[in-house]
Give the backbone structure.
Amino acid sequence: MVVVVGPGSECPPGSTDPDCDTTTVVPSSELAIVKSFTGNTGGTGPGGIPEAKIGDILTFTLTYTLAGPPVHNGVITDVLPQGLAYVPGSATDSVPGAEFSFSSYTAVSRTLRWDAPLVSTSGSVTYMVVVLAGADELPQPLENVAVIDSDETPPDEDRKQVFVEPPPPGATATPRVTLPPTSTLDGSQQSGSGASLVLVLFALAGVALVLGLITPVPARVRRRVRR
């Protein structure tokens, strides 16, 4: 509640006293936000913090509550930590009423944004993220903060934490290539060498035979044979 006392005071929006010359009580608005998520498959981590695994798809719900008269130019932002990647197209407009509509996701600042020209009721928005490989190597827990603001209310925020579980130990061993036994390789080489030697000897013998047939017998040898 906002209390305005005495003449000369500036009349706030919603005042029923046009001259502001009497004590005026004007209802104020409050806008609050609460975060939650589902989809983590790691159960509960240290300190009761939800635990997720690499590859999990988490669905975040941002629930906002309006107490008091409607407010103007409502804004919801949510900044994602490293290790969580926004799933394109997953952000929804608010329900019920769709007063907050999804505006943008800025990759550089990792920020999602929703806007509402007028917020007249409580509601919620949702979006999804995927837990990236390597998220378990970042400082834990991962934390992201959602903030809601308007012209008539101060910013309100809520943060949510998640532990990312490292992959289980015992990676697949490097496959081994089995080579043939050394003895087999040596035997093959020896067999090949032996066969080559035999072929060379046969070739030399053939050459010697041909030369013997072609070369004439010396005369002295012929005379000796006659005697």
